Amino acid sequence: VFAGMSGSAIENFSCVIYNIFLMNCTWQSGRDAPADTQYFLYWQKSRNEEEMECELYTKDENCRNVGCIFQNVSIGIEKAYFLVNGSSKDSLIQFYDKYIDLYKIEKLMPPSNITVNCDEIKNDCIIQWQRPQISHSNKDMCFKYEINIKYK
Questions:
Q1: Could you tell me the CA-to-CA distances from 142 to 75, 131, 138, 139 in Å, in that order?
Q2: 30 burial class (0-12, 13-18, 19+ CB within 10 angstroms)?
Q3: Domain Type I cytokine receptor cytokine-binding spans what residues (predicted)?
Q4: Mean of the pLDDT values across residues 51-66?
Q5: CA-to-CA distance for 52 and 41, rounded, in angstroms?
Q6: Long-range contact list for 77-81, CB < 8 A, 24+ apart?
Q7: pLDDT digits (tens, 9 = 90+) for 107-143
Q8: Rounded CA separation 106/121 (Å)
Q9: Quick one: residue 114, left, alpha or beta (phi over 0 = left, psi -120 to 50 = alpha)?
Q10: Cα–Cα distances in angstroms (integers) from residue 13 to residues 54, 87, 95, 143, in the given order
Q11: What 3 state SS string does the chain have?
Q12: 139, exposed or middle or buried, with CB in 10 Å at 0-12, 13-18, 19+?
């Protein structure tokens, strides 16, 4: 199952979704990967969808792919499948794969349209805001907020 040179697969793979529809994935080269190793990321949103290769890689100082930015990402209910394989002239490179629930890696935007109305006579304030936009389908999700009020 793990064909390829030991220690050549990527390490520290992680992805985050931000600004509602952008996904950034990063990784580090394998400890024992040959110097000419190049990595390629593929992902599949669900079993019914086609596998897509990264179109916008980020590179390290050796021009090796160490990350990818995906645009127009939407979050489904199935776990997404990620596969990073590599190639080298010198040896076979181990692949890395992982299933991820995309809704768990979404960084939410801050609330918008924040208003504060204070009544000095009653000595109280009403603070209102709109919930941030989210990309996944569970629109009625419960949000918890923390308000830090500092008096001057």
A1: 17, 10, 10, 9
A2: buried
A3: 12-105
A4: 94
A5: 8
A6: 77/137, 78/45, 78/46, 78/47, 80/43, 80/44, 80/45, 80/46, 81/43, 81/44
A7: 888 888 999 998 888 888 889 998 887 766 555 567 7
A8: 42
A9: beta
A10: 15, 18, 12, 28
A11: CCCCECCCCCEEEEEEEECCCEEEEEEECCCCCCCCCEEEEEEECCCCCCCEECCCEEECCCCCEEEEEECCCCCCCCCEEEEEEEECCCCCECCEEEEECHHHHECCCCCEEEEEEEECCCCEEEEEEECCCCCCCCCCCCCCCCCCCCCC
A12: exposed
- Tokens 């079993």 correspond to 47
Structure token pair of residue 128: 């209102």
What does the chain come to in residues? 152
